[in-house]
Amino acid sequence: MKAIICDKYGLAEMKMEEVEKPVPKDNEVLVEVHASSVTTHNLIMVAGKPYFVRLMDGALRKPSARIPGSDIAGLVTAVGKSVTLFKPGDKVFGDISEGGFGGLAEYVSVPENMLTLKPVNLSYADAAAVPQASLVALQGLRDKGNIQKGQKVLIYGASGGIGTFAVQLAKYFGAEVTGVCGTRNFEMVRSIGADHVIDYSQEDYTKSGQRYDLIFAVASRSIFAHKRALTPQGIYVSTGSPSLARVFQDMLLAKMISRRDGKKIIGGWVVEPNKDLGFIKELIEAGKIKPVIGRIFPFNETAEAFRYFGEGHPGGKVIITIEH
């Protein structure tokens, strides 16, 4: 089978090669992958930057996963003898990062508990956009941000893969939502339900005088800048940042700021993969939320897809499709 191989750090080192097709273990399913999405985690892992991530992954010389790819959607073609959740022919999706990645290949074998039946109203490409981004948004808003009906909620980075889900989920929970994005994605963010949209190139929302009960930040910006726009008991939730300085700022300053003035700062947070994917599936099938696709690349342009994603401001998820 064909797979994207990364034996060295750097996007230029990504190569498509023929490798052996995996055989599922007793608790695994073999998935014919039809689509995968580019995530920040995958980009950092392949590029090897920032360098501290190499230390965290214990992979100083080459990426920790030889075949990247974590968000997948595809068709079950074989199952291990102890598998009970799926059968050949089932259409599935999920985040397989805890199974060692491997989604950027024609086939991948993963434990059955990492997958969920694909929403019936989504294509494979749309379904691959869902797992990680939707769960970061859901768990950040609901579990960490304690979002409540009627609150004023601001989504910073509203046009990205995570941000577009955050806008829709905040509306689902009954909040008054303000999205912050760039000029070219202004109308798109409004179209997915934002009550107000701020173009960050034209206006600094932290200096407008408006205060928010919850700020959910996808893109990088100083904690202190966001803190100015919180209500006295407001909560700021960060999804993390590829910036080393920003990560340490989130980790070291969050508790100190929270203790000092009552505003709750939650930084450097990581998603629990697949925990609520069934709930997300129900919302999608009910028409409450939907993935937003920024651009789709064919399998043989995977490196270009990673480069495009790394440039920022994609206006939704970046998807890689695999033809069979």
Characterize the structure shown.
The chain has 324 residues and is an alpha/beta fold. Strands 3, 4, 5, 6, 7, 14 and 15 form a seven-stranded mixed β-sheet that branches. It has a six-stranded parallel β-sheet with strand order 10-9-8-11-12-13. β14, α10 and β15 form a beta-alpha-beta unit. α4 crosses α5. The longest helix is centred in the last third of the chain and has 18 residues. It is globular and about 60 Å long.
Briefly summarize what is shown:
The chain contains ten helices and 15 strands.
Jot down its keywords.
single chain, 324 residues, alpha/beta, seven-stranded mixed β-sheet
Going by helix content, strand content and strand pairing, the class is alpha/beta
Main β-sheet: number of strands, strand sense, barrel status? 7 strands, mixed
Q: Please tally the helical runs, counting DSSP H or I stretches of 4 or more residues.
A: 10
Task: Please indicate the percent range of residues in DSSP E strands (runs of 2 or more).
Answer: 25-35%
Helix content: 25-40%
Order of helices and strands: EEEHHEEEEHHEHEHEEHEHEHEHE
Question: Which whole number gives the mean pLDDT?
Answer: 90
